[in-house]
C-alpha cells in the first residue's frame, strides 16, 4: 500500500477506535535508500573484517599482549595456553566481534541469525568451548527476560495495565499539560514492573494515540506539535523509565552482572533505584519542558480537545473493562510482591532473576495462577539475539580483548596514571552516551563499554564502580534515531513525526542526559559513594 493510500485509509477510519493502533495494524515503514545500501554492504563488509582481523593481520597491541592489562580470568587462560595461542584467540575474538557489530548495525540479515553466526563462530575459532558458548542461552538474565514476558503477558491478559493507564488519564489528565505529566507517572510505575521496553510501548501505544486524536493530531500530512510531543515524549519516557530501575531492561541487568563480577559485593535493585530514579524523573520533566515550551510549543487550539466527547470515549473504554476482577487483584498482588522483594534484595540477597522466576511459576500455576502457557508471548528471536551478545561477553572475559584495547588506547594518546579521574569520566560517559547514535542494541553497547569502563578503572587504579556504574546509567538513552531501539522503531511507524523532528528533540535530550550524568557525578553520585569523595557510601 502506498503512503497516500495508507493516509487515506487512516482518514476514513474512526480516530478514536483504539484497536486500529495495535502494533500488528501499524503500516510497515520501508527502508530508506541509505538503509538499503547498508544492508547490501553488510555481508561483504562482515566477511572482509573477519578475514582481515581474524586471520590476515594482527594489531600490534595484540601481538605485544600486555599481560598486566588482562583481567584474572583471561590471565588464567594465558597461563594455560601460552602467548601465541592467546594472541590468536584475541585476533579471532576481534574478527567475530566486528562481524556481529557490522551485521547488527546494517541489518543485512535478521538479528537472531547474526547471533547464531556469532555463537558458532566463537566455537569454531576456539575462543569458547561448545559448553561455554551454548550455555549463554541459560544466562540468568535470559531467564529473567523470559519470566518478565510471562508477567507482562499477565498484565495484558487481565487488562490491569490498560485499566491503570486509562484510570490515571481520566482522573488526572484533564488538560493537555496534565496528560503529558500523567504519562510520566504511568511510565515510571510500569517500568518498575516490566523489564521489556517494547512491551511497555505496546501497552500504551493505543491509549496515547487515541488521546492524540482527541486533541486533533493525526498521522501523516498535517502533523501537529501535540502529536509530535505526545509520541516523542512517550519514546523518551519509556526509555528513561527503564533506566530508573536495574530491572528496567535486560541490558541494565547485564551491566549490573558485569560490574558485580569485577567487585566484591554487588549492584542491588535499591542501589540503582536510589541513584537513578531522581535522575530519570528530573530528565522526564526536563523533556516535557523542552518539548512543550521550546522545540514543539503548542498553539492555543492544541491545548484543548478537538473532538467533542473524546474523553468520554476513553471513559467508555474504561467502563467496558467492568468492575475490577479477582484475576486483576491477584496480578497486582504478584507484581507488588515481586517489587517488594526486588527493592529489598540487599537485605535478603535473593537475585532479581530468582524473584521473577518464583513470580512466573505462581502466575502459571494451575488453579492458583492467572495465565496459561498459550497466553504467554515470548519473542524467542529476541532471546536468541541476546544469547549472541552474552556469548560475545563470555569471549571478552576469556580473552581480555577490551582491557587490552583500553591499555593500548590510553598508552597511544599519552594518558598516564596521573590522568585526573574526571577526564576519564567525561571520556567514557560521553562515548557511551553518543554511541547510541550508531548502535541498535543496548545489549551490545553494554557488552562493549561497561567492560571498557571496568578495564579503565582497573588500569588507572580507581574503584570499578566509580566509572563502570555511571557508564551503565547511560544505557537507556536510545531515542534519537528509529534504529536506536525497538520502541524507537515502533513509534516511528505511527507517522506522527518526521525523522528531523526526532533528531532535533532527541539530540537535545541526549546531550542533556549526558550533562545530567556529569552533574550527578559531582553531586548525588558522590553523596552515595559511587564517584570519589562520596560521603554516604551505599556502594
Poorly predicted parts: 1-12
For the report, how would you describe the main beta sheet? none
Listing every helix as H and every strand as E from the N terminus to the C terminus, the arrangement reads HHHHHHHHHHHHHHHHHHHHHHHHHH
What is the CA-atom radius of gyration, in angstroms?
24 Å
The pLDDT mean sits at 83
Plain-language structure description:
The chain is mainly α and 539 residues long. The protein has a domain at 160-320 and 400-528. It has helices at residues 3-12, 33-56, 60-64, 72-81, 83-106, 111-124, 130-134, 140-158, 160-172, 176-193, 197-214, 225-243, 250-260, 269-295, 310-320, 326-343, 345-348, 352-364, 380-399, 401-412, 421-435, 442-460, 464-472, 486-492, 499-522, 524-528. The longest helix has 27 residues, at 269-295.
Provide keyphrases for this structure.
globular, single chain, 0% strand, mainly alpha, 539 residues
What can be said about this structure in brief?
The chain is an all-alpha fold and 539 residues long. It contains 26 helices and no strands.
Amino acid at each position: 500500500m502506498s503512503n497516500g493510500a495508507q493516509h487515506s485509509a487512516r482518514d476514513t477510519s474512526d480516530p478514536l477506535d483504539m484497536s486500529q493502533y495495535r502494533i500488528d495494524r501499524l503500516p510497515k515503514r520501508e527502508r530508506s535508500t541509505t538503509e538499503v545500501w547498508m544492508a547490501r554492504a553488510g555481508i561483504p563488509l562482515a566477511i572482509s573484517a573477519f578475514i582481515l582481523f581474524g586471520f590476515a593481520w594482527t594489531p600490534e597491541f595484540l601481538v605485544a599482549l600486555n599481560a598486566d592489562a588482562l583481567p584474572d580470568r583471561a590471565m588464567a587462560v594465558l597461563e594455560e595456553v601460552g602467548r601465541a595461542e592467546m594472541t590468536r584467540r584475541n585476533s579471532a575474538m576481534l574478527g567475530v566481534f566486528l562481524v556481529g557489530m557490522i551485521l547488527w548495525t546494517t541489518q543485512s540479515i535478521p538479528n537472531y541469525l547474526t547471533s547464531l553466526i556469532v555463537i558458532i563462530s566463537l566455537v569454531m575459532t576456539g575462543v569458547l568451548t561448545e559448553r561455554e558458548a551454548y550455555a549463554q542461552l541459560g544466562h540468568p538474565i535470559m531467564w529473567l527476560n523470559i519470566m518478565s514476558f510471562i508477567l507482562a503477558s499477565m498484565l495484558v491478559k487481565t487488562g490491569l495495565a490498560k485499566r491503570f493507564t486509562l484510570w490515571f488519564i481520566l482522573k488526572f489528565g484533564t488538560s493537555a499539560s496534565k496528560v503529558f505529566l500523567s504519562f510520566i507517572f504511568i511510565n515510571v510505575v510500569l517500568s518498575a514492573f516490566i523489564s521489556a521496553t517494547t512491551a511497555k510501548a505496546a501497552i500504551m501505544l493505543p491509549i496515547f494515540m487515541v488521546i492524540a486524536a482527541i486533541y486533533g493530531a493525526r498521522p501523516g500530512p498535517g502533523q501537529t506539535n501535540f502529536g509530535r510531543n505526545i509520541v516523542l515524549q512517550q519514546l523518551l519516557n519509556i526509555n528513561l523509565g527503564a533506566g530508573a530501575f536495574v530491572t528496567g531492561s535486560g541490558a541494565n541487568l547485564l551491566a549490573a552482572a558485569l560490574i558485580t563480577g569485577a567487585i566484591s559485593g554487588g549492584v542491588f535493585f535499591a542501589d540503582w533505584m536510589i541513584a537513578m530514579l531522581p535522575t530519570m524523573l528530573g530528565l522526564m520533566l526536563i523533556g516535557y519542558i523542552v518539548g512543550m515550551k521550546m522545540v514543539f510549543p503548542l498553539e492555543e487550539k492544541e491545548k484543548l480537545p478537538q473532538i467533542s466527547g473524546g474523553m468520554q470515549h476513553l471513559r467508555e473504554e474504561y467502563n467496558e473493562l467492568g468492575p475490577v476482577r479477582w484475576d486483576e487483584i491477584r496480578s497486582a498482588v504478584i507484581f507488588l510482591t515481586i517489587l517488594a522483594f526486588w527493592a529489598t534484595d540487599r537485605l535478603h540477597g535473593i537475585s532479581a532473576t530468582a524473584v521473577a522466576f518464583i513470580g512466573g511459576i505462581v502466575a502459571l500455576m494451575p488453579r492458583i495462577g492467572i495465565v496459561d502457557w498459550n497466553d504467554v508471548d515470548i519473542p524467542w528471536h529476541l532471546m536468541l539475539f541476546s544469547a549472541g551478545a552474552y556469548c560475545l561477553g563470555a569471549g571478552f572475559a576469556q580473552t581480555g580483548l577490551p582491557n587490552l584495547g583500553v591499555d593500548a588506547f590510553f598508552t597511544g594518546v599519552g594518558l598516564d596514571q596521573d590522568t585526573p579521574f574526571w577526564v576519564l569520566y567525561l571520556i567514557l560517559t560521553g562515548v557511551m552516551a553518543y554511541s547510541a547514535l550508531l548502535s541498535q542494541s543496548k545489549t551490545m553497547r553494554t557488552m562493549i563499554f561497561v567492560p571498557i569502563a571496568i578495564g579503565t578503572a582497573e588500569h588507572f587504579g580507581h574503584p570499578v564502580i566509580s566509572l563502570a556504574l555511571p557508564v551503565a546509567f547511560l544505557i537507556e538513552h536510545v531515542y534519537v534515531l528509529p534504529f536506536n531501539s525497538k520502541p524507537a522503531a515502533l513509534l516511528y511507524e505511527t507517522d506522527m513525526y518526521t525523522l528531523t523532528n526526532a533528531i532535533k528533540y532527541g539530540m537535545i535530550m541526549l546531550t542533556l542526559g549526558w550533562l545530567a550524568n556529569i552533574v550527578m557525578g559531582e553531586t548525588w553520585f558522590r553523596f552515595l559513594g559511587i564517584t570519589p569523595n562520596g560521603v554516604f557510601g551505599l556502594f
